[in-house]
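G., the chain you wanted modeled:
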Amino acid sequence: MHKKTLILGATPNPSRYAYIAAGMLSQYGHPFVPVGIKKGEVFGQKILSGQEAAQQLQSGDIHTVTLYLNPQMQEEWYDFLLGLKPKRIIFNPGTENPTLAERAQAQGIETVEACTLVMLRTGQY
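Predicted structure as tokens:
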């Protein structure tokens, strides 16, 4: 099953994990929506600002959110992310955030502390 994924912290920098994750999601057949503060494109998709993403996405559009922002940077995104009502949020290494995880779990959203790249490679995505 293809799981539409929002990459929060997307970047056009090929040396960053968020960029590598976009490539791997494509490779494994999962559509993705890159969202972040950096301008540019990732594998042919424009990186959306928070405002653009809020206008284009609706509750239930996204299966998985994968985080590439540190916990302090995540705070302004809480309502937006939870409002999307994803099935799960992946906290990649360095993005672990008990506050967001608790709020998500209270709404029935699965939270996973793991590496998206490893999950894809090992069939756990």
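The chain has one domain: 5-121.

Shout if anything looks off.
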